User: Fold these one by one.
Assistant:
Number 1:
Amino acid sequence: MRIVNGSAAFSAATAVSVTIGNFDGVHLGHQELLRRTVARAKSTGTAPVALTFSPHPVRFFSPKARFYEITSLEEKAERIAGFGIEALVVESFTGEVGRMDPVKFAGEILALRLRARYAIVGYDFTFGRNRSGSPAMLAGIGRELGFEVEVVPSLVRGGLIVSSTRIRELLLAGRVREAEELMSRPYRVSGVVVAGAGRGRKLGYPTANIQFTQELIPLPGVYIVEAEVAGVRRRAVANVGFNPTFGENSFGVETHLMGFHGDLYGQEVAIHFRDRIRDERKFKSVEELVRQIEKDVRYAAGARFPDRIEPGGRAPDSAAAGGSAG
């Protein structure tokens, strides 16, 4: 899949079937949009394209709002590519696009620059200045400009509509298993392993201290995770928080990879959150902490999760032993 910076730079040999959205999290609803776009393109001889925006429109309209994106642009592109989209057009939302009225957006961006013949959007899609455009409005404009609009209905799981907002709320509440169900994959954070205080090794449970790059980190606590190093996943236990037993006040993600005895310093590690074990808490003694870590590791080692093939990827190596570092 090619990534195009701005619709003005886009070119295609044929007309286009385009889906439009922020695709934050690339959740089940987004995945349905992508599947339908690829299916439409195959049946009509058009090119399957996705149009997204950077920065996220929330940052444009409400720059002071407390807002966390679920996926980086790089991960978003990786996920979208897995569905067969041929080009991802990343439109800057800091200039004229954010201020275009709906008619100009549809005419300039979709009809003229992207040569859209079909536009596939979600039921809640808004566009144009002040988010004044709706799917019904887009369909009407499309009839005038020569493209057809398909509106994909909401997807409901657990009695609630699948949405990026709902996933954000679940992750911030530590409900990572439920968030996984809505994304069809575990939530992932990643970063380089850096030197820590070295306490884990002294306690018999060395940890990799991840200098994560994501803004959205699940609620502090202890989690069952899969630690991915060089494309291989291993079962692990991660502590998200402040290490209150040792009086620390800096937020971090420390991960014990079960059965691993290598050196991870300086390496990129991705942490896939599978389930939350417990809250982070302050223990009366180091001995009490070690006993609890032993319980956490035993519990994590025996936990079972349903096999899942991630869209555009492969099933995690659930049989691999977990490990540790640092």
Number 2:
Amino acid sequence: MNKEKGLKEGKLLPLMEDFYTVQGEGFHTGKPAYFVRIGGCDIGCSWCDTKLSWNALKFAAMPTDDIIRKILDKPAKAVVVTGGEPLMYPLEYFASGLKEHGIETFLETSGAYALSGQWDWICLSPKQNQHPLPEMYNKADELKVIIQNKEDLQWAERNAKKVKETCYLFLQPEWSVAPKMIPVIIDYVKENPPWRISLQAHKYMKIP
């Protein structure tokens, strides 16, 4: 398959890593799922814990059908597509292929790129470096805002005003400052009950 054409059609994806694990963040924490991490991101968050994913050229273009076959081998029929920023690539082919096999699909995105593909659940994690596209807010089932300092709570509230009423709201401490920020977030959530706390439980459990 021609690489350029395959990437353009979504039949190839720059796969950084894929693995079967348990979701550690947000609304679906504790659910087993197959994770697909797609390489490539230009958002550039200083605190990103997967900076290796930024340069898509480092990762081989994997046939999307091969990725789907690996997912089908696992007991849990659920997949989390993350990055990098997965929406830098057309995902219609991937998403429709998963749905044909009855796989529940979860997408994690900054919202900075247009949505492609049909998804059962969209986690929008907005970044101040590159704001989400306006139309992405209404598509989010879950808003997950990373909190590195107290000022980030204001950013969280600005984003919360843009999502639909049924969207779940989560504040997640940035991992390197979690001991400092968790008490701040706890106090904030107690005063602002629409918000919930998301912790990177997989890091506490020492799993991928």
Number 3:
Amino acid sequence: MLEALNKAALLCKSMFRNGYDAHVINAPLQERLLAQDGKPTVDIACEADFPVIAKILPDAQPAPENGPRLSATLEQDGILFRFYPLSCEDSEHPELSLMKITPTMVDRLTPEDRRNLRLTGFGSPQATSNVYDGFQDLSCGAIKLVGIPDDTLRHNYLLAIRALRFAANFDLPLGHNTWLAIVRSSSRVLDYVPASDIMDEWRKVEAESMHIFVKYLFECHILQGLIPEVASLVCIKQRKNKKSNEFQDIFSHTLECMKHYPEGEFHYDWLGTMAMLFHDVGKLYTAEYIEGDYTFFQHHRVGALVTRKILRRLHFLSEDIDLICHLVRCHMRFYPMMTDRGIRRFMSLDEYPRLIEMSRADIEARGEVYTTYNHNKKYLKRASMPEQMLEPLLNGNEIMQLTKLKPGPQVGLLRDALLQAQIAGDVTDADSARAFVQDYARRSLS
């Protein structure tokens, strides 16, 4: 099987050396046909006509007059080589200039292969509700389109998005020729597939797999046309973390954040993961390079406005737009080391548990330390307690003024006693706190 194709490639090189173009026609399909044929047969496209072929390959024979449109045939080492004329018109469509299938190859196809092949001129395939229609069985270990991938996509360009979805969700590689067909068809996907249909497929991508799906969209240049604002982040760099001199493009950082977000408490949070895709989109508009470093002041607010515009363009539901934009606008709130008052204000925000997970994902993506994050998490527990249980109503200076004590452990004892009285409800305001301190000092410290 492979030997026949190698010998065909050598014949093509012989034609090249003599100044004539030649190539093996649709090598992947012919490899399949060779595996099921009794006699090895390979079809070659060649620029030269029969008289020239005969001079270069003396054993070549003219094609039968009533047979397929052949230039010549050659039998060598038990292998039959058939030469078809190579189209070389300057004005023709580029995809038509490369022959995909020949009449003799069609004759060798099994009935099942004929049903699977999507060839122009054979009629469009019938509509079907089977989501796997157009794909080879997944047991092959990769995501592959049936037949000739370019022709299969030509009948339904949405299959390109679906192939990327399958590859991400099932953690399977894309077949090489399927991937090449998707890359070649990326502009047509954007031209002919409505954004709403693309998003219908996107919504079926698992949250844990979305970073892979977005990476595929970027690599095949669909994301650049669908969401250019996000794809452009690959051109902007930021310092990876506060202690590092390493710079990383923001798009790569975004993919890392999308990867880490579902690893926390929100394993299946599609909308939260989508918010991670847009959380830094504002940096495209706010980036400034000052004294050897980049700044992105107010990128969260600008990003929320940009995100709303993008999501409307992609036909998101209004309630989903509001949620994602809220998460983008507030995603910086859990980053600084907060006070009790700050943490209580943070907890008044809608969806604050999602905001915490966005902060954690960003820390993981940057390789930052968890000092600030752990501090804020500890204060979250304190925020569930009434305010009077957190701090005494009188500070140390006020206690010393009332009791005439000097700085020392006795002041701390009084302060703790006051806090316990507040928790017990014996002290409720500043006046009762002053009375309690004076009485406690008289009884305990005299």
